[in-house]
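Appendix B, example 12.
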Amino acid sequence: MQKQLTEFYLSQLLDCPIYDSLGKIVGKVKDIAVLWNGGIPKVTGIQHTSDKHKMISADCVLNWDILTGVKLENTREQLPIVDIRHEELYIGQWLLDKQIIDLNGSKLMRVNDILLSRREQAGKQHLLLIAADVGMRGLLRRIGLEFLVRHWENKYVHWQSITPLASRTGSLQLDKDKEQLRKLHPADIADLVESMDYKTRANFFKALDDEQASDALAEMELDTQVEIVSSLDGDQASDLLENIPPDESANILGKMPEEKSNVLLNLMSLDVSKELKDLMSYEQDSAGGLMTTEYITFPGSLTTEQAIIRLRELATDEKIIYYVYIVDSAEKLLGVLSLRDLITANNTAKLASFMNTNIISVNSKASYHKIAKIIHKYSLLAVPVLSEHGILLGIITVDDVLDFLMPEASVSGRMLKHLHKHTVKRWE
């Protein structure tokens, strides 16, 4: 029958003597390895020499005891020395004093100590990693001052909620960790990345899959976006820029050295490259500099039913659509419809018959102050940007204006930004 768990800390185990079956000392605990593969992390080996590639297999441990030392069932000559495997990591080296992601709180935490638990089975003791101690008490414990704060509560992040930022290969390589990160909102990943140092930030970002990377990048502050893109190789950077909203890409490229931005533009498709160059030609604080070219257009000849069917076809790609824009074959804006207009109209009615032709718009040179006043006055979620001939050039969303007017409110702006990732679609 399994006995009650006994708990202690890694800091208390390190430097404990290791004894063989004859009671002879064979070394001290320099570190312990755990198997990190999705289940509760189990200690699989003990590093007892300076050779980090070799360790004593934990299978031969009879007793883990921080007071009397670690007892083995073999003599020194018969010790099972094994190589550390790819899916194992030394927790002292890769967790202690390192940053981890607390997936529950979506934030970075520093590991000050590690809570371990032993259980006895078949005459042997097995050691498990239970939690990371991220509180001040854990730090004071390591320097022998825990007695001063024994009334403080320990602050733990349990193993199910831990994603290490480093592994033996220097990045997130474990499928479990990547799967855990997929549960986080892109804005949370963006916050995590922005709180990392440069090296950690670059390695972490490169480990994300394409969708996560593009979604998270679109949520970050501009300076961080530029830093991330600059840290990637040309193909990775250009692919990433093609997968985020064009206005975001244009802003990033506009902040990079001209030589570097030209290299990335040349790696993109001709259509995307031209679109981004056009956006970059506008002043940053003008309507042209703020607008995105992601919106939905329909011809006025479509019926309500046809338009709704086609919007449903876009549902897998679009997050939220507030307006659809009615244009002619030359992309001249003829009218605007809200989703409410669309779903309350007669199914057989042509869009042109009930579209709003009293269009509130701005030109590409309009200042952000003017745009903000218009959006506020008419309670708009987006305003179209037109050329002097009435051609639809793009739209400006309320969150883009908020970000520009109140950079200190960028967190609030980011909460809205994920709602506006619409792809330009033209339906004939």
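The CA atoms of residues 246 and 275 lie 8 Å apart. Residues 185-281 form a domain with the MgtE N-terminal fold fold (CATH 1.25.60.10).
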